[in-house]
Amino acid sequence: MRSRGSNNWRFVSRQIFVWLCCAAAAFADQAPAWSPTNIFAPASTPAKSIFGLSLFVLAVTGVVFLVVFTLLLYSVVKFRKRRNDDGREPPQVYGSNQVELAWTIIPILIVVALFMATARVIASVQKDPRLDNAIEVVAIGHQFWWEYRYPGLGVVTANELHVPVSDDNQPSPTFIKLLSADTDHSFWVPRLAGKTDLIPNHPNSMWIDPHEAGVYLGQCAQYCGTQHAKMLLRVYVQQRGDFDRWIQEQRQPATVSSAASQGQRIFETTACINCHTVEGTVASGRFGPDLTHLMSRDTIAAGAATNTPENLRQWILNPDAIKPGSLMPAMQLSDQDLNALTAYLETLR
Amino acid sequence: MSTESIAWPSASAESRSFVDTLHEWVTTVDHKRLGILYIIYALVFLLIGGIEAAIIRIQLIRPHNNFVSPQVFNRLFTMHGTTMIFFVVMPVLFGFANYLIPLMIGARDMAFPRLNAFSFWMTAFGGLLLYFSLVGANGLYGAGNAPDVGWFAYAPLTSRTFSVGHSTDFWTLALLVSGFGSIGTAINIVATILCMRCQGMTLAKMPLFAWLNLVMAGLVILAVSPLTAAQIMLLVDRYLGGHFFDTQAGGSAVFWMHFFWIFGHPEVYVLVLPAFAFASEIIPVFSRKPIFGYPVMVGATVAIGFISMSVWAHHMFTVGMGANVNTFFVISTMAIAVPTGIKIFNWLATIWGGKIEFKTPMLFCIAFLFQFLIAGLTGVMMSAAPFDWQLGSSYFVVAHFHYVIVGGILFTLFGAFYYWFPKMSGRMYSETLGKLHFWLFLIGFHLTFDFMHIPGLLGMPRRIYTYEPGRGWDTWNFIVTIGVFFQAAAIVVFLGNLIWSYFRGKAAGNDPWDAWTLEWSTNSPPPAYNFYTIPSVQSRRPLWDLKHPDDPDWKYE
Ligand SMILES: [Cu+2]
């Protein structure tokens, strides 16, 4: 049975909801301008669900804040000792069971409401909406860089994650399996999803379905050692066609050009190959990032520097100058070797 | 209560040589002296931890700053966190508990005076051990000195693979040693409150201060023990080939997290319950009304004690515990907001209808009420697990827990310093300097910690020694750092006030606040034996009864 009163209430609550959503949408449109890592500018379903919940929680806590704050302020001002005080003690009041009951029950109701809303979002984000055309990625945290493997597509890359746009016409979410090669890390790209930790011996997973193409930024959010600060995250969300093309390119082995053969020789006769892989050559180390398509990346050293020839040279000369405490050693190469080596790396497109 | 319980004036101090005085203080088992030792010890570490914080903030004043190296920065935040929690806030709270509980319950000393001294010196040596790492930890060439694993020292960063040298060992041993001290003091507090109350003081007639400290001490026993166990396991891992947390040999990093946070969360309440205790004494006296709803306050305290043992994994919402476990910790965490809210409402009701005197202790407590409200509400936000997936490990969390520890605990603590300073020293502090301290600190606190929430919402993680420009974080970080200078100035005023007043302050008299609990019935400072005769009480406010024989409390309770 439905009474008139409850109809009215429904109407009002729906109005409030619609109004909140409009305000939120307007805000979310402006929000990326504040910061490329603003949690209030969601661009993927998990981040959006969290955003919706956060509005509700903010609204409820906001109202509680206003009410209690006003009461406090009022009583501090109202009950101050006046200048013309008669010096007598105020009436001594010891308590009141009715009042106590009221301010126990009201908070309990508020908590129940918050809990229900929260439990729903937990279920919606943590349950697995796996689809046939989903992309699978394995993200492996290393001290202080990211390794990405696409097991189904045969691609290995580092630091810059590429995923396709997922929209209603062509839903293609990305599932990310999170592993760690050493210490704890955390994958946090605020506009795409909340953070999930990468813990050795404790595989985790998360998913994203970005709705718009673009570069999304983030960074490691669990202290992982000296260079935790420069373990940055870049997620490239591409239109499906662009993404497929990128995959095609990444699957190729390294281009070998005779012009850079001296640099290649240096690379292959120093310790570089113990730590780095260049597909199609003898270099097959796994301690550092895969360099097969190094030049297809915008940045080096997990986003610490842009990928320019000068930065590359500087990096090989002395990684500590760019990222003090990184786990790549300075190799003490001569200027000549350094130039040849840089020239070789620049051919790895 | 009878007038006889007013103590005899203390015998005039003969002049002693410095060595005699020192010897007396080092070998003392008097709860008041040990209390003061705890407090002074904590103040020294407060300065050290504060300087560390200031350096951290200077480094973060702008993006890509080079004030300190990443290695030094990581040591700084590890030392800052460890120092502030274990060697500032815990000792200072133990100090006040030690000093005040026997006086408030009409006892001559703590139940176990020697255990008391032992516990203090364990804590003290723990702190020294932590800082001895600066010279003692360079075990291997290139190994760092001070610990740099963060104050919660997540595995496997603490394993020998990732932490070479001895810095982590100093961290572990410091907490192990001071942990024994904390457990000793906690046992002592429980025993004192349960067994040493004066005649007439039933549990229901104890000052709330004693109740809150009783629950606090119970929590210390329950919470510090697992931490101590975990430290031993870590040592076994590092030196005896154990694999508890060694992920490369099948150990579990998550296991350490559970151990740490089953200590870590109750620890928050260990710190905040004594702050509630200060507020529950100071607010009534300066509102000139008894605490509103005493039985409910006691019930809420006990409820907080129990619930706080079941919320630890809300620090772990992002470690992949699965939907069901997350949901459980959401409800338990949100539940704790109810008794905490009840407390705020009861303080509010205590003020309501009173005549508030804005003396320095009361100013700090009023600011506490506002700030603790905000701290509690940001806590509720993060208890919604999905929201925490965004907020956790960001500067929002850093702002939140500093709102609790500074805005809540440190503010009431300053209030407590001013409130009981006349009792401890026999001198009145300077009200002008006290107010200056309050306003400077209030401005500094809000500049720093209000604005610190924002970079967190904009995606700035904690524990980074530098950050990228162009993320919208620069301005906020700049403001946050500016606030530090106000806070530093306030601390200078505070210490200046204490020192100046100790030597030059006006004599305070026994009862400068016209207060109601037993400590105000004896001399300032109290004699070694506290009371000439052990008092006997009939109500929660024995001195009210004495001052208002026509309208005593015991008629209503
Ligand atoms: Cu990391």
Tell me about this structure.
With 349 residues, chain A is α+β, with helices and mostly antiparallel strands. Chain A folds into two domains: 37-81 and 99-250, Cupredoxins -  blue copper proteins (Immunoglobulin-like, Sandwich); 258-345, Immunoglobulin-like, CATH 2.60.40.420. Chain A contains nine helices and twelve strands. In chain A, strands 3-2-1-5-8 form a five-stranded mixed sheet. In chain A, strands 4-10-9 form a three-stranded mixed sheet. In chain A, strands 6-7 form a two-stranded antiparallel ribbon. The N and C termini of chain A lie far apart (69 Å). Mean pLDDT of chain A is 90; it is low at 1-6. By secondary structure, chain B is mainly alpha-helical. Chain B has one domain: Cytochrome c oxidase-like, subunit I domain (Cytochrome C Oxidase, Chain A). Helix content of chain B is 65%, strand content 0%. Chain B is built from 16 helices and no strands. In chain B, helix 3 (70-104) runs antiparallel to helix 4 (113-136) and helix 8 runs antiparallel to helix 10. Classes of the chains: A alpha+beta (349), B mainly alpha (557). At the A-B interface, helix 2, helix 3 and strand 9 of A face helix 3, helix 7, helix 8, helix 9 and helix 10 of B. Bound molecules: copper (II) ion. Copper (II) ion (CU) binds next to loops of chain A.
What labels describe this entry?
heterodimer; A: 349 residues; alpha+beta; Immunoglobulin-like; 2 domains; three-stranded mixed beta sheet; 9 helices; elongated; disordered N terminus; B: 557 residues; mainly alpha; Cytochrome C Oxidase, Chain A; globular; binds copper (II) ion
